[in-house]
Structure formats: structure tokens, C-alpha cells
């Protein structure tokens, strides 16, 4: 009976029942396989316990002008630097057009606290920790930080000035919870 | 998949006859690396390195499986578990040093294998697929070696992982999420170490699989040879076994001798002292350098220190580094000369040797800090590297007038021996 009706169906709309079932079944299997892949990809993203390390509190009362400390946030190094007035002036004297990633020092610090420069200690090139936070380390040609891995130089506002890094050192989200305590994250 | 005069597998014993009917595995081996595979009679010692690379992979797999019985892939204890292998596990020091230096030996023989392929034009038709699969194996080797180097969780392990996964952050827009996805965190940590261990265990078996394809693709046209002339008849060939099993066996002896010298007398020469300091995410070693086998590519990465054409220096460096390997995939079509062997290509041969020197210079620059004159030297080296493949090779292969070639492999062999008649009896 079916063999009698089938040829007629082909002539009517050009689609056989079997083609429809074939395409529908393969598409459904394809979507199913795709959905199963999602958790296999998602498992590689940072897990909940890694994401939970996302705020850090720092006491900055002991940092003298000209000094810097190295701490960590989300297991990444953070530089907290108490700038000299001279260093702030130097950073302000640079025309924005000279910068690869133009930002003023005011944009990189909090209002009224512009001597506190807080950045990630992660070179924006390939992620090494730049030198210059500890006493006696090479601060590079611009008196800020110097990355020894591939030779990126940052200025006193931690802005990229020379070398392969594309961006300024990243300023993490932070706020002053008091005059001596900073909450990062 | 062989020449018509290839010897046929004929089992004599009843057991082997029975096995051949049920599962013709001995037949497969006989036809692949036994008397059933006819090979050009004039292969020199440069044709040893494929077999040596297989031997190196086998050594890495065996020593690696044993190491995995004692190693713990957890950021808290990984470093100490490696020290435990070195100090407490019976013969652990030997197995680890063999695995460490085995990686270097693997790269040495593979680089010589690639050198052979470039000099004798082994990548040309009809063997393009053999070459392409070879480049895939090379990429897999680099991924495996990198992830293996992270496992001891020393300073170089950690910062190597940081820098190499940093390559992916150069990708516009999705770069940073991709990097976090690869690491499973914001910096290399326990999640990273675990997945690298899992993949480092897996990839060698993938390499073994691709090697089978590489040999399969090779055995369709048959092996190349130093003259680059294809096999014409039976007198051009000899059976793989016993002739080349013997020759490869001799080469294997030399290989093992050098391997043993390195492992027993100088096991840390090719490594970095910093990797015996536990990983510290707050302090980068003063001078980070990858393992020696990555140095030329690392120099190309470092050569880009300036933004150019709206693309920043970092992305250029990463693109150039990947392109320096990707360009090898196009080699069979960039070199249009029908002459394979450099012995008959006077002009190409000059540029080939300049390329060898260029790669060595890049390797030297890769070792140096990012200062002058090394930056300018790596820039010149990187430009020449790409110029060789993309400009010089296509031009040379069109304008070059090759030297007169013998008519067959046999003629070439006999001509060589005509100069020394006392040896011609062979």
C-alpha cells in the first residue's frame, strides 16, 4: 500500500518521508551531541572556589612615600605604591599623545588619594611580574616598573612607555574603606 | 601499498599460518618494517632519524608511565613529589633524568629529521601528506613538551605556563576569557596543573597515532632517497629487513650512547636551575627562557617590540610565532622545483644553509635578555626566516638551473663506486 502512494508523494512536493525522517533524526542527534559538549567545555572555566578568592583587604598605613608593597588578589600580584609628589608631577608632565595607552594619573587613582597607585603586578605583555616594587630593583627607563621577561618599561603611573606590552598595568577595582585600609575586588 | 616486486609474507609454521588467517598482524609488520618493504638502496645515515624518533617516543612513554606512578598532580605537593622521585623512589633519579633528557633527545632527532626533509626535498610530491602529518606531529610534540615542563611546578614551570598561556590573551576581545578558560583560574594554579597532567599523559598516544598515519602515507609512494630520483625498478631497492633494520640498529646504538652520556654525566645541562625553586606566583625569575628546543620561535615572538598597522606588538609577536610553524604546512607548494635533492640544486643549497644559520642565530637570540643588540638581531633573523619561505624559495625554485642528474638510483650508486672500484663488489 505504501509503495503505491510513495511515488505520488515525490511528484507532489519533491520530498520523501524518508528524507524528512533522516534529516530530522541527524539534526536532533547533532543538537544533542552539541549540548553534551557544553559541560565538557564549561568544566575548564575557573571553578567556584577559585572565583571565591575575589576580595582582599590591605592595610597601607606602613607604606612610606616612595615605597611600594607587593600583595595578592585572586592569586595575582598587586602593587600598592605610595608615590612621591615628584613622581606624580612627572606623570602629569607627559602629554597623552606620547602614550601607547593614553590615561592620566587621575584616571588611574582615586580623587584626593592620587599618591596611592594600586595596580596588578602582571605585565600586560605575557604576564610576568615586573620589577620595581621592592627596594633596589630595576625601575626601567621611566622610573616605574620594568618587566625583565621581554623588556617592557612602565612609568611612574605604571603606564606602558616602551617595549612589547600593549596596555598600562591594570588598575583593579578597589576602594578605600578607611584612610589606611583598601579593599580590592 | 608497495612495489610489485615486494616480497610476500609466507608463514611457515602452522601457528603463524593459523594466526595469519585470523589476524594478519605479523603480515602487517612484515610489509611495513620487514622484508616486505622495499627501500631505495642508497639511503645514508640521515634516514635513521625517523626510527630514532620512534625510539625516543617509546622511551618517553615508558619512563613517563613509570613517573606517573610516583608523581602527584596537585599544586601543593607536585614539587615535593618530584623531589621524592629524585631522592626516595628506587632508581627514581634515573627514570626522571631519562625522561627529562629524553625530551631533549626526541627534539634533537626530530630537528635532524626535519633538516633531512628540507635538504633532500622529502616534502615534495608525491610525499606532501607525509610532510603535513610530520608538521602535525611536531606541533603535538611542542604542546606535550610544554605541558610536561609545567608538571614539576618549579619557578620555570609556573612562569613558562604564565607566559605561554599569555599568548592567547593577545587575541582581540576573547583573548582574556580564553586564557582563563585554559588555566581554569586567573593565574596557573591547581586546576591548570591537573589538566596539563591529564593532557600530557594523553598526547603521546595521539602522537603515536599520527606517526602510524605518517608511516602509512610514506609507504604509499615508498621512501625518498638522497638523489631524490624515484625508484624505477627492483634493482633500485633492497628489503627494509635486514638491510635497514641493521643500519637503523647501528644508529640507535649511537643515539643511546649520547643519551646515556647526557643522562648520567650531565643531566641538568639542558635545564634551568630556577626550576629547582618551588613555583612562586609573586616573583618572576630574573631571566626566563624556554627549553632550548623552543628558542628560535621564542626569539621570533620577542622580535616584535613595536605596534604596526593597527595591530599591537604583542599580537604581532604571537601571530609571527605561530606563523613561523604554520608556514611549514605550505612548504610543498612554495617550492615548485621538481628537483628534490639539494645535491642537484646549487642555488637552493646556498639559501638552505643560510636558513640553518638563521635558525641557529634565532635560537641564540632567544636565550638572551630583551636588550640590544639581540632585539635587532632577532628582528633581522625573523624577517629572513619568513623571507626564505615566502620570497626566496618561490623565486629560486623558478629561476634555478639544476645540475645534471643520473637516470636512476642504481646509476648514481654505480657512478659513486666507479671512483673506488675495490668497494664496488657490494
Describe the protein's architecture and organization.
Chain A is α+β, with helices and mostly antiparallel strands and 185 residues long. In chain A, 30% of the residues lie in helices and 22% in strands. Chain A contains 5 helices and 9 strands; from the N terminus they run αααβββααββββββ. Chain A has helices at residues 2-13, 17-42, 48-51, 85-93, 105-108; strands spanning 56-59, 68-73, 76-82, 116-120, 143-147, 152-155, 160-162, 174-176, 181-184. In chain A, the strands form 3 sheets. A 3-stranded antiparallel sheet of chain A has the order 1-9-8, with no helix packed on it. In chain A, 30% of the residues are buried. The mean pLDDT of chain A is 81. Chain B is an all-alpha fold. Chain B contains 16 helices and 2 strands. Chain B has helices at residues 14-22, 25-33, 49-68, 78-87, 92-119, 128-150, 155-166, 175-183, 190-219, 240-265, 295-303, 313-326, 331-334, 346-367, 374-399, 409-418; strands at residues 38-40, 237-239. In chain B, strands 1-2 form a two-stranded antiparallel ribbon. The longest helix of chain B has 30 residues, at 190-219. The relative contact order of chain B is 0.12. Chains A and B meet through loops of A and helix 7, helix 8 and helix 12 of B.
- The averaged pLDDT of chain B comes out at 91
Rg of chain A, nearest Å = 29 Å
Number of helices of chain B: 16
**Biggest interface and its residues per chain?**
A-B, 29 and 39 residues
* Low-confidence spans of chain A: none
Largest sheet report of chain A: 3 strands, antiparallel
Strand content of chain A: 15-25%
**What is the tally of helical segments of chain A?**
5
Summarize the helix and strand pattern of chain A as letters. Answer: HHHEEEHHEEEEEE
Helix content of chain A: 25-40%
Amino acid at each position: 500500500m505504501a509503495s503505491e502512494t510513495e511515488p505520488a508523494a515525490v511528484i507532489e512536493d519533491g520530498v520523501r518521508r524518508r528524507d524528512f525522517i533522516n534529516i530530522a533524526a541527524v539534526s536532533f542527534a547533532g543538537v544533542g551531541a552539541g549540548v553534551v559538549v557544553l559541560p565538557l567545555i564549561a568544566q575548564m572555566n575557573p571553578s567556584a572556589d577559585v572565583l571565591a578568592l575575589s576580595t582582599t583587604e590591605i592595610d597601607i598605613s606602613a607604606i612610606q612615600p616612595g615605597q611600594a608593597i607587593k600583595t595578592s588578589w585572586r592569586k595575582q600580584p598587586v602593587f600598592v605604591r605610595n608615590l612621591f609628589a615628584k613622581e606624580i608631577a612627572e606623570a602629569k608632565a607627559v602629554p597623552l599623545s606620547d602614550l601607547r595607552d593614553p590615561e592620566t594619573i587621575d584616571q588611574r587613582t582615586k580623587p584626593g588619594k592620587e599618591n596611592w597607585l594600586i595596580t596588578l603586578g602582571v605585565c600586560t605583555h605575557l604576564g610576568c611580574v615586573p620589577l620595581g616594587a621592592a627596594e633596589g630593583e630595576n625601575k626601567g627607563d621611566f622610573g616605574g616598573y620594568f618587566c625583565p621577561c621581554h623588556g617592557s618599561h612602565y612609568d611612574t603611573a605604571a603606564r606602558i612607555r616602551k617595549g612589547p606590552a600593549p596596555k598600562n598595568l591594570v588598575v583593579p577595582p578597589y576602594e578605600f574603606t578607611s584612610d589606611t585600609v583598601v579593599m580590592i575586588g | 601499498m608497495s612495489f610489485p616486486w615486494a616480497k610476500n609474507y609466507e608463514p611457515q609454521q602452522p601457528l603463524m599460518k593459523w594466526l595469519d588467517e585470523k589476524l594478519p598482524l605479523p603480515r602487517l609488520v612484515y610489509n611495513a618494517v620487514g622484508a616486505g618493504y622495499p627501500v631505495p638502496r642508497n639511503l645514508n645515515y640521515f634516514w635513521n632519524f625517523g626510527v630514532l624518533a620512534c625510539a625516543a617516543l617509546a622511551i618517553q612513554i615508558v619512563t613517563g608511565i613509570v613517573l606517573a606512578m610516583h608523581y602527584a598532580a596537585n599544586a601543593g605537593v607536585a614539587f615535593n613529589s618530584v623531589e621524592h622521585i629524585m631522592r626516595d623512589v628506587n632508581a627514581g633519579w634515573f627514570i626522571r633524568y631519562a625522561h627529562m633528557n629524553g625530551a631533549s633527545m626526541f627534539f634533537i632527532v626530530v630537528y635532524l629529521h626535519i633538516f633531512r626533509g628540507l635538504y633532500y626535498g622529502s616534502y615534495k610530491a608525491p610525499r606532501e601528506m607525509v610532510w603535513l602529518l610530520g608538521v602535525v606531529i611536531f606541533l603535538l610534540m611542542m604542546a606535550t613538551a610544554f605541558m610536561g615542563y609545567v608538571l614539576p611546578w618549579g619557578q620555570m614551570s609556573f612562569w613558562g605556563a604564565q607566559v605561554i598561556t599569555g599568548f592567547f590573551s593577545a587575541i582581540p576581545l576573547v583573548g582574556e576569557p580564553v586564557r582563563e578558560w585554559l588555566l581554569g583560574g586567573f593565574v596557573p594554579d591547581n586546576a591548570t596543573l591537573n589538566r596539563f597532567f591529564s593532557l600530557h599523559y594523553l598526547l603521546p598516544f595521539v602522537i603515536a597515532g599520527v606517526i602510524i598515519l605518517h608511516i602509512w602515507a610514506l609507504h604509499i609512494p615508498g621512501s625518498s632517497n638522497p638523489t631524490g630520483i624515484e625508484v624505477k625498478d627492483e634493482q633500485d631497492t633492497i628489503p627494509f629487513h635486514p638491510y635497514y633494520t641493521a643500519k637503523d640498529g647501528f644508529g640507535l646504538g649511537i643515539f643511546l650512547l649520547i643519551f646515556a652520556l647526557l643522562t648520567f654525566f650531565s643531566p641538568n645541562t639542558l635545564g634551568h636551575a630556577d626550576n629547582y625553586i618551588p613555583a612562586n606566583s609573586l616573583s618572576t625569575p630574573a631571566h626566563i627562557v624556554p627549553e632550548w628546543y623552543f628558542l628560535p620561535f621564542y626569539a621570533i615572538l620577542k622580535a616584535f617590540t613595536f605596534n604596526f598597522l593597527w595591530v599591537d606588538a604583542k599580537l604581532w609577536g604571537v601571530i609571527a610565532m605561530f606563523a613561523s610553524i604554520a608556514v611549514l604546512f605550505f612548504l610543498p607548494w612554495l617550492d615548485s622545483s621538481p628537483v628534490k635533492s639539494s645535491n642537484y640544486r646549487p642555488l637552493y643549497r646556498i639559501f638552505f644553509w643560510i636558513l640553518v644559520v638563521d635558525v641557529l642565530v634565532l635560537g641564540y637570540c632567544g636565550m638572551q635578555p630583551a636588550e640590544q643588540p639581540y632585539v635587532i638581531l632577532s628582528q633581522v633573523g625573523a624577517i629572513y626566516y619568513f623571507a626564505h619561505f615566502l620570497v626566496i624559495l618561490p623565486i629560486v625554485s623558478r629561476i634555478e638551473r639544476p645540475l645534471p642528474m643520473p637516470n636512476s638510483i642504481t646509476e648514481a650508486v654505480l657512478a659513486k663506486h666507479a671512483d673506488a672500484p675495490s668497494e664496488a663488489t657490494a
